[in-house]
Amino acid sequence: MSYDADGVRHAIRELLVAVGEDPDREGLRGTPDRIARALAEMFSGLEDDPARHLETVFDADHQEMVLVRDIPLYSVCEHHLLPFHGVAHVGYIPGEDGRVTGLSKLARLVEGYARRPQVQERLTSQIADAMVERLGVRGVIVVIEAEHLCMSMRGVHKPGANTVTSAVRGVMHNAATRSEAMSLVLGRRA
Ligand SMILES: Nc1nc2c(ncn2[C@@H]2O[C@H](COP(=O)(O)OP(=O)(O)OP(=O)(O)O)[C@@H](O)[C@H]2O)c(=O)[nH]1
Ligand SMILES: [Zn+2]
């Protein structure tokens, strides 16, 4: 299925009516169109294969850890269509050929999977699986720390509650390797 901007505009207009608003009042007149444009961006990952970014590789002859931490993350929870936001940390041990990908590609990978209706657990695993399947890494750890607005501004009302998820693959299961990765992730808080 592809993105249907007309369908979104129509649905938002209906939504405004259904919540008791007047979609023709001045402040709301452009809202269906603005939301259609905003959602096209926020859900652009649905029509994308984010792992394609990992096709950019370099022969760095590096067989030890590469970790990018504090990648800013904005996604949308699929249960309430409210944002969750925080940071992602992606650390990996390259394959035996020593090839690495561009550092920005890790952030693009995170962003691509984040731009879909998501749950944090699936987002975390999709990033880790792409690193194994498309980059052929020997091991990877992905840690995401995020605040879900559905838990802050409504419902249970717990602003500041931080959800931490991790996905570990391959040699990153090794206790020493994983602890090196975690100390790099936590380093900034020391
Ligand atoms: N595991 C997981 N749960 C999530 C995520 N985002 C939102 N949720 C939860 O999805 C659940 C949906 O629960 P429901 O009982 O169906 O919905 P609800 O009545 O709106 O629940 P409350 O949020 O507790 O008011 C809530 O517990 C949310 O906190 C996520 O990324 N992962
Ligand atoms: Zn939610």
Structure notes:
Residues 9-185 form the GTP cyclohydrolase I domain. The chain is elongated, with a radius of gyration of 19 Å. It has a five-stranded mixed beta sheet with strand order 5-2-3-6-7, with helices on both faces. A two-stranded antiparallel ribbon has the order 1-4. It has helices spanning 5-18, 26-29, 31-42, 103-114, 120-135, 149-152, 175-186; strands at residues 57-59, 66-77, 83-93, 99-101, 117-118, 139-148, 163-170. It has 190 residues and is an alpha+beta fold. The model has no long low-confidence stretch (mean pLDDT 96). 28% of the residues are buried. The protein binds guanosine-5'-triphosphate and zinc ion.
